[in-house]
Design a protein that fits this description.
DNA-binding, 160 residues, mainly alpha, 57% helix, 3 strands, 3-stranded antiparallel sheet, homodimer
DNA sequence: TATTGTTATACTCTATAACTATA
DNA sequence: TATAGTTATAGAGTATAACAATA
């Protein structure tokens, strides 16, 4: 490592390492997101669920007979993206696509017993994961963080 | 819209819309990140800089003669990823790759005048962008948010 | 006409592994 | 041996645009 702190040797303050960039909400959001994403993958291992599949499974377990379109709306992604996710969950035998009487376009996503237990196990893992990674945050700070993130979501998720 | 709130009609509380998922830090982090990312793109337009190119430009302007490897370390991505970013900034005439006397492996990234003014303009745009999107957050809340995000980063960015 | 599930396709961002030229 | 820049390649994750079946 030739130089850990490039340029600008004669600065007086030590707080803002990189003037503008490090103070942006967006930049810090991205970096923190990358950290949590990488940690999630590490915990789950190469055979485990990805974050998006875990999220989908969570909603399927909570709302049995939910529809792919509803799921897409709740997750904030396009319908077309749900197909691969649903395929994976079906391949793992965590849910089944069940025809809905009265509307033959729709398929209800019904969690299997295996899906429900897999979700519970995964949930415990993820909670321990967040507890471990967010160990520097108090319960109140964590709550504050979620509140602030939800405010950002509320600002932007209206324009669909 | 057939059903805005699927399943589980008889719940007593109204706070946690989706029990587990909506309360996870990771999930809210991802959703908020997607909001800010999408907004950034919308503001910049199809010809504008992406977030990662803007971040790189920011560091190049702040640390003239920074190296690609140093840049990669500061941005938390691999060296190989910097090539395309540097190519784009060079193609836009925002920086030049300058040989460094004493070590012929290295190329210093030197911002051009166009790069510096483009950065300043872009910076103003991005700041207005964050101001607009984070309008629901007070200055103090924004500061708190950045602090909390940095704590998460500190927890995870050690393992390189 | 509108909606559901689906396919095809492309784009962005990132990582890994290798190469070359230098050190 | 190690490092800087580079290339090739692959893998997530997302979006758009279309289509068939159904409403």
């Amino acid at each position: 490592m030739a130089q850990t702190r490039p340029g600008r040797i004669g600065e007086m303050e030590e707080e803002p390492l990189n003037g503008a960039l490090e103070n942006f909400v967006g930049y810090n959001l991205k970096r923190a997101y990358m950290v949590i994403q990488a940690d999630f993958r590490k915990i789950q291992g190469s055979e485990g669920l990805s974050t998006r599949v875990f999220s989908a499974l969570s909603l399927v377990v909570e709302y049995p007979q939910i529809t792919q379109s509803e799921l897409a709306r709740m997750l904030g992604i396009e319908r077309s993206g749900l197909v691969a996710i649903t395929d994976e969950l079906e391949r793992r035998n965590y849910l089944t696509r069940v025809p809905v009487p009265g509307d033959r376009r729709v398929q209800a996503l019904v969690p299997t017993q295996a899906g429900q237990t897999a979700y519970k196990d995964c949930l415990a893992l993820v909670q321990a994961h967040e507890d471990g990674l967010l160990t520097g945050l108090s319960d109140k700070e964590r709550e504050t963080l979620v509140d602030l993130l939800r405010k950002i979501r509320a600002s932007g998720e209206g324009d669909d």
